[in-house]
Amino acid sequence: MKRDLIQNAKEVIEFLKRENQTITFAESCTGGRVASAFTAISGASSVFCGSVVSYSNEIKSKWLGVKEDTLINYGAVSKECVSEMLDGALKMAEANYAIAISGIAGPTGGSIQKPVGTVYIGIKTPTKKIVEKYLFKGDRESVQTQATFTAIEFLKKNI
Fold it and tell me: Does domain 2-157 sit in CATH 3.90.950.20?
């Protein structure tokens, strides 16, 4: 999976270079793993603006502009929150593309409505915004790895 992760990131970077475009990330449950995958590749600095690890609701709100009402009514692990994280990251970085991720990696924190492994992943391109819900299986490490891989693959398929 790690090899595929790096290959997908390389393909996204090459596309962005060809198109003279940039990318940014807003990560919560993945803790910067998407940014780490990109920065492992030489030349990423030509397209990667930077990233925010917005683990707390306070940072989601203060840094990314996620509305308090969104966090109260839908929670941090929601389509609505990830949508606002995308907007905030793009605004902050002045990038063309973004990935945002929020979820419950576990082993604690799950509920009946949002069990451990629930992750929302969003991408925003110059022409569209898509946020999808996933339910990953496994331990914390596995959920984080699956979310990271899926986010990069999701963007690759939509550029």
Answer: yes
Amino acid 120: pLDDT: 98
C-alpha closest to that of 46 among 12, 24, 13, 7: 13
65-75 confidence digits (pLDDT tens):
999 999 999 99
Domains in the chain: boundaries: 2-157
- State the Cα–Cα distance between residues 106 and 59, nearest whole angstrom: 20
Ramachandran angles phi, psi of 25, nearest 5°? -135, 150
| Structure tokens given for 87 | 């907007």
> pLDDT, tens digit, for every residue of 115-154?
999 999 999 999 999 999 999 999 999 999 999 999 999 9
Buried b (16+ CB within 10 A) or exposed e, 57-95: beebbebbebeeebbeebbbbbebbbbbbbbbbbebbeb
pTM of full prediction above 0.90: yes
